[in-house]
Amino acid sequence: MPKFKLEYIWLDGYSPLANMRSKTQIKEFAHFPKLDELPMWGFDGSSTRQAEGRSSDCMLKPTAVFPDSTRKNGVLVMCEVMMPDGKTPHPSNTRATIPDAPDAWFGFEQEYFFFKDGAPLGFPRGGFPEPQGPYYTGVGYRNVGNIARELVEKHIDICLDAGINIEGINAEVAKGQWEFQIFGKGSRNAADQMWVARYILARLGEAYEVDIEWQCKPLRGAFNAPLDWNGSGMHANFSTGHMRDVGGKAYFEKLMAAFSKHMDEHIAVYGPDNHLRLTGLHETQSIDKFTFGVADRGSSIRIPHSFVNNGYKGYLEDRRPNSAADPYLVAGRILKTILTVPTT
Ligand code: ADP
Ligand code: MN
Ligand code: MN
Ligand code: MN
After folding, report:
1. What is the per-residue pLDDT across 109-148, written as a single tens digit (0 to 9) for each?
2. Residues enclosing ligand 1, CB less than 6 A?
């Protein structure tokens, strides 16, 4: 029987930004292991801010499994953290707080910076490149440098080999800034895939001495002058069965009233330092306002043209979540708000 390398991935207890952690377990299987064949596992929670030293065991419960084409017989196992009883979710387990909604679909647009030697990839040492303008969807060494393209290409291939539903990539507005999109059906599916896609990207950077900067506004402070550089978002596109199949203007208006009412709860889980990014500039709305508008990239929620043309049916884009937000918390909050709105 082949021996598989099972890479168990989980989120640690750091706040406000959890880190990804992982370790390998070798196990024999007759074939590529299915989710329900993967055992629970444990780790030392006192090293990850998830337990005290005296009673340090936390449990890892597999939630999603993907082939890892970068390793012979490699398996990526996304896990959630459980208490020592194996049944109670650990307080850091944000996945466990997501309401069930099998007909919900999410599409996340993950923006991020490649960082090397303390600056975005492609920034001249101690200085700044040309102002923003040519970098978004740019081509050529002057605009994208010589490493980024190789990294994003490899990222696509490893995600596709894993069966992750990556939908595209593009170079973004700031130099060294990129985006990828992930789509999934179900309340937790897209978020599971997003964490694994983030993991793959972070691991890929190691050999290139490149880090992935998930923070939403890394170019401030020392980098602030002479220009205000774009921040990074994680736009959350969402729909439910009711939004896609029934919809209607009246339901849409009730939905937006609920989003407005719960504005603070949304912002609370849309990522740290979001006040630095949601300024009303750079295609964002200010953090203390809730607005929606057709094709309006300066609003909190953008309504695609297709939504209105189809009788207020389809998906909406919440533009507020930032690049460092936990997609479990984002999906969970969006569903909680939607579930407050009666569909009849
Ligand atoms: P833009 O950059 O113009 O905002 P993108 O093409 O980068 O748009 O992202 C659009 C996102 O919307 C994708 O992640 C896609 O999967 C998602 N999406 C499309 N249709 C739906 C739907 N019905 N429900 C939820 N998400 C959707
Ligand atoms: Mn996009
Ligand atoms: Mn973008
Ligand atoms: Mn978008």
Report:
1. 999 999 999 999 999 988 889 989 999 999 999 999 999 9
2. 105-107, 109, 167, 181, 183, 235, 237-239, 244, 314-315, 317
272 neighbors 15 (Cβ within 8 angstroms): no
Residue 264 buriedness (CB in 10 A; 0-12 / 13-18 / 19+): exposed
Q: Which of 175, 297, 291 is closest to 233 using CA atoms?
A: 297
User: How many angstroms separate the Cα of 20 from the Cα of each of 71, 122, 182?
Assistant: 19, 26, 18
User: Where does the pLDDT of residue 219 fall: very low under 50, low under 70, confident under 90, or very high at 90 and above?
Assistant: confident
Strand bridging mode 105-116 / 119-120 = antiparallel
Q: What's the pTM?
A: 0.97
**Domains in the chain, ordered, with CATH?**
3-93 (3.10.20.70), 105-338 (3.30.590.10)
CA of 111 to the centre of ligand 4 (A): 10
